[in-house]
Amino acid sequence: AQSVTQPDIHITVSEGASLELRCNYSYGATPYLFWYVQSPGQGLQLLLKYFSGDTLVQGIKGFEAEFKRSQSSFNLRKPSVHWSDAAEYFCAVGTIAGNKLTFGGGTRVLVKP
Amino acid sequence: DAGVIQSPRHEVTEMGQEVTLRCKPISGHNSLFWYRQTMMRGLELLIYFNNNVPIDDSGMPEDRFSAKMPNASFSTLKIQPSEPRDSAVYFCASSFGQGGQPQHFGDGTRLSIL
Fold first, then answer.
1. Is the pLDDT of residue B70 over 80?
2. Which of A9, A56, A63, B5 is in the most buried spot, having the most CB atoms within 10 Å?
């Protein structure tokens, strides 16, 4: 069975600074990988996804993520955060066997002015 | 385009009452998922359907919880009788196709059982 670990529960970053959120997965074959963002009082919104091909994936809102098979990681990055990026971020893994996704525990991002 | 629609957005009721949460998936999507989110346990998958058929209900907490999908455009999650520990945000999500497709989430129902 697959699993996802997000080692950081909380991250605080200053507005304008760069952001990197860590995600490690466990799965025996090539995974499908996703990052979602959840703003307060809302559902999860898809930021980006990786299926195959280029290991650097661009998403919405200026986010990107890099798939590193050797490290079983799919870290999310943004060069310069905005106050509106304060939210909770979830990494998820899916498989070709079905539509079920396994989510990590989430990382809550706080943005300081 | 309309996304996943959940109703009600908020529900407050007393313990012992029956609670019914509703979900309309995105048109054309063939998989539907019910999740529960709490501070303590995070995001938990309760059940998911594929082509209106329940595929995996191993996350349903106990017999008080039941879910149905009578057609491709509607699903319900019912709790009877409700208990204070059922208080959570319940999300519905849908996806299209087979194998590793992204899920699209509704805005959730915030349920409070007094």
1. yes
2. A63
What pLDDT sits at residue B16?
96
- Phi, psi of A83, rounded to the nearest 5 degrees: -55, -30
Q: List residues of B whose CB lies inside 8 A of any A CB.
A: 4, 31, 33, 42-43, 45, 48, 50, 55-56, 91, 93, 95, 97-108
State whether the Cα torsion B51-B81-B22-A96 is positive or negative.
negative
Instruction: Enter the tokens of residue A72.
Output: 């079983």
In angstroms, rounded to a whole number, what is the distance separating the alpha carbons of residues B19 and B68?
14
Nearest CA in chain A to B108: A43
pLDDT in tens, A7-47: 999 999 999 999 999 999 998 787 899 999 999 889 999 99
Instruction: Identify the burial level of B76 via C-beta atoms within 10 angstroms of its C-beta, where 0-12 means exposed, 13-18 middle and 19 or more buried.
Output: middle
B6 pairs with which residues across the strands?
A: B23
Question: Which pLDDT belongs to residue B1?
Answer: 64
In chain B, whose CA is at the least distance from the CA of A35?
Answer: B102
Mean confidence (pLDDT) of chain A? 93
Please give, one letter per residue, the 3-state secondary structure of B49-107: EECCEEEECCCCCCCCEEEEEEECCEEEEEECCCCHHHCEEEEEEEECCCCCCCCEECC
Which among A43, A15, A29, A35 is positioned nearest to A107, based on CA atoms? A35
Structure token pair of residue B93: 């999500």
